[in-house]
Write a structure and sequence with these properties.
By secondary structure, the chain is an alpha/beta fold. 43% of the residues lie in helices and 15% in strands. Strands 1, 2, 3, 4, 5 and 8 form a six-stranded parallel sheet that branches. It has a two-stranded antiparallel ribbon with strand order 6-7. The chain is globular, with a radius of gyration of 23 Å. Residues 1-36 have low confidence and may be disordered.
């Protein structure tokens, strides 16, 4: 009887240890999988308009907006999907167009990154009436530099519904992302954010 009890105890202990080990491994795999699919919302702002629109996107995605000036290189490279928003402050400039922390990130940090396999969606803030010749130019700058780093940019949108003279943010007849105009079309921003997020989901972003 004692021998049988010992064998039974050993068997139960082995099963318990196996179950615990298997559960731990599965938990670690799940955590790693969740981390590998992580998405993030980065922005920077001068007047607060970009932050406002980042807030609309945050509501539609559940992501927390982070100023790119507060983000590390690891914060960016640890994500598979990035939503990035910038205003255009230095109108007419060929580079450093946003006048925000994006200027430092794009030219000092991004060149050292390999973003191959990552999706990036871009939104911009502009003023069609006041700066119609340079509407959301910074979006084009983000597009060029993120693609140069190996990322795939998604979320291109139609130019319909906008009234501007010129922009550096059009590729193949579409905006490279979602333009917002809080000065002249503020009442359209929230709906634009919602519809754009649905589009991003359809283009494979894990939101």
């Amino acid at each position: 009887m004692k021998f049988t009890a010992i064998v039974l105890a050993l068997a139960m202990g082995t099963a318990s240890a196996f179950t615990t080990t298997a559960w731990t491994r599965q938990t670690r795999r799940s955590a790693k999988s969740a981390m590998s699919m992580k998405a993030a919302l980065f922005y920077s702002t001068t007047t607060g308009n970009t932050e406002t629109c980042a807030g609309y996107i945050a509501e539609a995605t559940g992501l927390s907006p982070v100023d790119i000036g507060d983000a590390s290189a690891d914060d960016v490279t640890s994500c598979d999907d990035l939503i990035c928003g910038a205003p255009t402050w230095h109108t007419g400039a060929d580079e450093q167009r946003s006048g925000t922390e994006w200027d430092s990130f794009l030219y000092d940090t991004l060149p050292g990154m390999d973003l191959s396999g990552k999706k990036v969606a871009i939104f911009g803030l502009g003023d069609q009436a006041g700066y119609g010749d340079n509407f959301c130019d910074a979006m084009g700058e983000l597009y060029d530099l993120f693609t140069a780093a190996g990322a795939t940019v998604v979320g291109a949108t139609s130019t319909d519904g906008y009234d501007h003279a010129d922009t550096k943010s059009i590729r193949d007849g579409k905006f490279v992302g979602m333009p917002f105009d809080e000065d002249n079309q503020y009442d359209m921003s929230e709906d634009r954010a919602k519809s754009w997020v649905e589009q991003l989901k359809g283009e494979g972003m894990s939101l």
